[in-house]
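Why should sequence recovery work at all? Because a backbone constrains its sequence more than one might expect. Tight turns favour small or flexible residues, buried strands favour hydrophobic ones, and helices have their own preferences. The token representation captures these environments compactly. In the example below, the structure is given first.
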């Protein structure tokens, strides 16, 4: 399907403000009914959505190939499987999650029973990025449905073919007053952020995350921000270099490095540096062969702007004395950039300041654990940290001296694929968690409920007037309770 045909199919890519408000109001009106649905009804919707997703599997593969050259197998593993596994996990546990939980009641509140009730936040907005458009739109959508919310989905304008397929999937399953997928660019996102959503789930850069948070603050809406940052990989003197190189190369080059948890730079023990560079070249060759520019397993850069940015970073580094160990070549027509490994980078290089989001890997040697730790600590907290070490003691030392949203030891990327764990950042790399139970909670309000079981209560005794004996009672409670 041509881009012109896509635009014709979605004629209302930029609806008028009054049309947008009407759609939002329809969601608001329907939200109370959704909040009253039970686990069975919500699971039925999720199973129907999964069936629709699988019916459109081939279309999704073709769309992602058209948008930026993603191989169908990579699409299955990184886009579709992540969503279907999320649905299966949610449906297994949703009844228990929705049931809430009892809470202990202190001795100072005799005659009361306490508990936590789980309720949806209401109408939520999900703003998703282009790098994994299906995965990063539909996983939070699954959480929002499980929690009983109405929602607007706004995928990225940079993947128009994929957004059009997602719109058809959503429309085939959900009424517009329950899940509304709107296509458009910056103007659409800005218009949506003016509306009083109850929660906003944003995946993207820290710079845009600040804007989203500021807009949300106007309505006191809660936010989940999944941002990025410069996720380091550490290869210490005990590491298995062949294993480390293979897994770093895979984690860096999947989707041509356009992953928020991709290793953004590598710190290598000085004694291992030369051997590591050799193993990295071998690993790249093993994954993609010698003619990488013709290899369709290797994705392309999403657009010309990102291509020019990355090639500019490489050129700047080389002009300022850095050494290219492999790669550096590109083809602007196909937006191909070869896997690139660079050493000798200046401290002021954009390669060490900006999140790269591409197949360019700075490699830096370190002399001591303290030097490597200081290098990481001097930068904002990343979304991911990768540790390659055979020593459990050294692994624990790296863990205790660093901070990040998540960590993987002797591997890369796979922390995202375990939806039994919380996924999210820390400060600059975001806050709030997603996946499984943690995603369910992100779109829920944990409402405390306390019930007085008897006619009398301790609270009746501690009301004015404050007699001297009440002060004695207060002293006893303060001291012992």
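From this structural description, the recovered sequence reads:
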């Amino acid at each position: 399907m041509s881009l012109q045909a896509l635009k014709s199919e979605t004629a209302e890519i930029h609806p008028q403000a009054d049309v947008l408000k009407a759609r939002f109001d329809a969601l608001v009106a329907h939200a109370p009914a959704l909040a009253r649905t039970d686990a069975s009804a919500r699971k039925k919707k999720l199973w129907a959505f999964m069936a629709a997703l699988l019916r459109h599997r081939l279309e999704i593969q073709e769309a992602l190939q058209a948008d930026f050259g993603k191989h169908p197998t990579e699409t299955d593993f990184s886009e579709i499987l992540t969503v279907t596994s999320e649905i299966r996990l949610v449906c297994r546990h949703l009844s228990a999650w929705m049931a809430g939980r009892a809470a202990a009641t202190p001795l100072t509140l005799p005659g009361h029973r306490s508990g936590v009730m789980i309720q949806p936040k209401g109408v939520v907005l999900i703003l998703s990025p282009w790098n994994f458009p299906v995965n990063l739109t539909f996983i939070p959508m699954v959480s929002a449905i499980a929690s009983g919310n109405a929602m607007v989905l706004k995928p990225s304008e940079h993947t128009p073919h994929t957004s059009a397929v997602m719109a058809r999937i959503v429309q085939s399953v959900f009424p517009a007053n329950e899940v509304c997928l709107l296509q458009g660019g910056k103007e659409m996102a800005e218009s949506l952020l003016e509306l009083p959503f109850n929660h906003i789930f944003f995946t993207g850069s820290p710079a845009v995350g600040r804007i989203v948070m500021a807009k949300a603050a106007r309505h006191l809406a809660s936010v989940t921000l999944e941002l990025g940052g410069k996720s380091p990989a550490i290869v210490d003197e005990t590491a298995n270099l062949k294993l480390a190189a293979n897994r770093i190369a895979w984690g860096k080059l999947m989707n041509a490095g356009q992953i928020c948890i991709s290793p953004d730079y590598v710190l290598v023990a000085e004694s291992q540096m030369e051997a590591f560079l050799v193993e990295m070249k071998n690993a790249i060759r093993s994954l993609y062969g010698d003619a990488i520019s013709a290899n369709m397993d290797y994705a392309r850069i999403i657009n010309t702007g990102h291509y020019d940015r990355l090639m500019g970073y490489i050129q700047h580094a080389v002009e300022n004395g850095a050494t290219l160990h492999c790669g550096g070549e590109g083809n602007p027509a196909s937006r191909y950039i070869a896997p690139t490994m660079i050493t000798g980078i200046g401290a002021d290089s954009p390669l060490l300041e900006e999140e790269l989001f591409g197949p360019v890997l700075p490699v830096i040697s370190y002399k001591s654990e303290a030097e490597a730790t200081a290098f990481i600590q001097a930068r904002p907290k990343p979304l991911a940290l990768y540790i390659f070490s055979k020593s459990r003691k050294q692994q624990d030392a790296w863990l205790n001296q660093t901070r990040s949203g998540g960590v993987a030891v002797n591997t890369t990327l796979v922390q995202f694929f375990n939806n039994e764990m919380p996924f999210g950042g820390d400060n600059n790399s975001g806050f709030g968690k997603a996946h499984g139970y943690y995603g369910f909670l992100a779109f829920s309000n944990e409402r405390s409920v306390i019930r007085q079981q008897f006619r009398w209560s301790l609270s009746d005794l501690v009301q004015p007037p404050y007699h001297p004996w009440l002060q004695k009672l207060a002293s006893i409670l303060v001291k012992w309770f």
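A few observations help interpret the result. The first helix runs from residue 3 to 9.
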